[in-house]
Design brief:
Blueprint: E1 2-9, H1 17-32, E2 36-41, E3 49-52, E4 59-62, E5 71-79, H2 83-97, E6 100-105
Antiparallel strand pairs: 1-5, 1-6, 2-5, 3-4
Helix pairs in contact: 1-2
Length: 107
């Protein structure tokens, strides 16, 4: 089963050297255990563009749907045997990056 772990923060590129080393170690453990699919950081909401191409609409506007002080700053896509294993990996990822993590199954 595949899951996404969203990293929640109030700034992008905010990891210090110790956190980045822990993230690298977590990433390597995912690779070694065959649980790694993909991971990356993402830009802040002010770098987003909302695009609407439904029907005959061709609208775009600067900004994000997110208007909170906290937002997703990155994510992992992982392979886990089940939700319980994914929750353990989410906890481990949260500890590594020293941020809250939101876990969701990929459909």
């Amino acid at each position: 089963m595949r899951f996404v772990l969203f990293v929640i923060d109030d700034a992008t590129n905010s990891g210090n050297a110790e956190e980045m080393a822990a993230i690298d170690a977590f990433n390597e453990s995912l690779r070694v255990n065959g649980q790694w699919v993909f991971a990356c950081g993402i830009g802040a909401p002010n770098t987003a563009t909302l695009v609407d191409g439904r029907g005959n609409t061709t609208e775009s506007e600067s900004g994000s749907l997110i208007s909170d002080d906290t937002f997703y700053t990155g994510f992992w896509v992982i392979d886990a045997a089940n939700r319980a294993e994914a929750e353990i990996l989410a906890l481990t990822g949260s500890r590594a990056c020293n941020r809250r993590v939101e876990l969701r199954p990929l459909l």
